[in-house]
User: What shape does this take?
Amino acid sequence: MNCKTNKLRDAIALALVVGVGGTTTPAAFAQEAGAQATNLDRIVVTGSRIKRAEVEAAQPIQVISREEIEATGLTSTQELLNGITASDGGGLSTTTTQTNGSDGSQQVSLRGLGANRTLILVDGKRWAVDLDATTDLSTIPLAIIERVEVLKDGASAIYGSDAIAGVINLITRRDYEGAQLGVYTGQTSIGDGARRAYDLTIGATGARSSGVISLSHSSQEEIMAADRTISRVPYYGCEALANHPNYNNGATYEGFFGSYCGSGFPAYGRFQGGALGSNGVTLIPGRPGTSPSDFTSFTNSARYNHAPVNYLQQPSKRSNIFASGSFDITDNVSAYARANYTKRTSTQQLAEVPLTMNTSGAQGPQWRIPIDINNVFNPFGQTINQSGFRMVAAGPRSPSYDYDIFSTLAGLQGSFEFADRMFDWDVFAQYNDGQYDSTGTGYINLFNLQRALGPSFRDSAGILRCGTPGAVITGCVPFNIFGGPDLGLGAGVISQAEYDAMLNYVRYTQVSTSGNTTFNYGATMSGEIAQLPGGTLGFAVGFEHRKDDAFNQPDTLVAGGGS
Assistant: This one.
């Protein structure tokens, strides 16, 4: 519902008092409140464009009041909506047990149909959406919500294909007078994952106008997946690894869950083909990796447990300013406006890059990277066309996100009477703008890696060189993929300077940016046509035009197939 309900609320309250008292006659009620009861404001019920005086709608609607919201003790809109019965829990969140988490966006999905099929409205109007047609709920501060209406049925006939799963209409606080300050702080019982939230809401109401402004800020600290039993292994059922002797080395065990409880691209490498066999060999921990005898057959016990490196809860910060107001131009015409700005930063952390190299192209064209027989570190005397290696030395992949989202809305609404029938109209225009910047560390330049795994040698001065003595590749540094997690530094195969040079040559920082703007405008009119035995025959008519512009500027190396 998205208009004033004071008269309706007062009438219902009075009716309840009359019903409970039992001593007030119907005649007395008619004398005292009859005039008010026949002048109820018509309201828009979520899932219908037709205004009516009835409270109930034909559609299944769940309503969450402001009192219920405050009683939950929650600090974000996503947490509130993710707990409703219609939610399937499939929307992105800053708390995840999946290997690849979100960019910090918060979404809700209804009935298992996805967040891009769940329409989010604010005061009956569409909210800003991302490039993938989803709404980031972190842009809607919980402090400005008066109530929530959830249409748990499909409503694509009314709202479009993005409402197939249902509609969530967030009604903001209006006719609010006074000031309210909210402070929340807390952390887990283990002492991590601290959350803080602050909000200040100020409102004023006059004879013909009203306005509300809300300032809010929230933050949360990370929780590492390694710090929880349920998340420090890739899948449920792998907890038995905790007592396995190789677990602390990031390995898994050989058994029923073996192929699921770790990656086949381990920190000690996996080299396959030819004399190495189809299953391949892996470096024995502690060995230098300079001789075939330093390697052993690859089994599930050599797999890499990639789960502990990930965040279970992402660190993030959000600042928001929200303002809305209305002004009664005449008794039947009012103007309204709304503006919202959100600044959100967050960081994700994923396991180190797995090098999934296979010249057959099975892992994609960018991974057609052989290890040359003449590579200075190759101990096997053959070119290796299939190999895997976990880039522990380069550190976890750590993309950081900086999002700025702005939304504004303005319109006129009113009513008029014609032929003893009431008609309502609404004209509006809306503009949304989103700018999304991302910077990621811990990634690998595959073009440089391919050169670093090609032919190489040490020159007469003992300096590592890529290429051959007669055709040196300037600037290239050979990479010791056979040296294990520290690239052979601990075993004395390479020096600290060579270790640093190897990483600096293959490691790089990803930079990307994207954005979208939406401009839409529309008009609606609804009213009553006739009284029928089953109730009033109503109608609604209108149009809406929406134009979306978007751009995506990916990292240049990613766009060129080099990462």
User: Anything to note?
Assistant: The mean pLDDT is 83. Helices lie at 6-21, 26-37, 66-72, 77-82, 156-159, 446-452, 496-506, 556-559. The CA atoms of residues 348 and 447 lie 25 Å apart. The two ends are 49 Å apart (CA to CA).
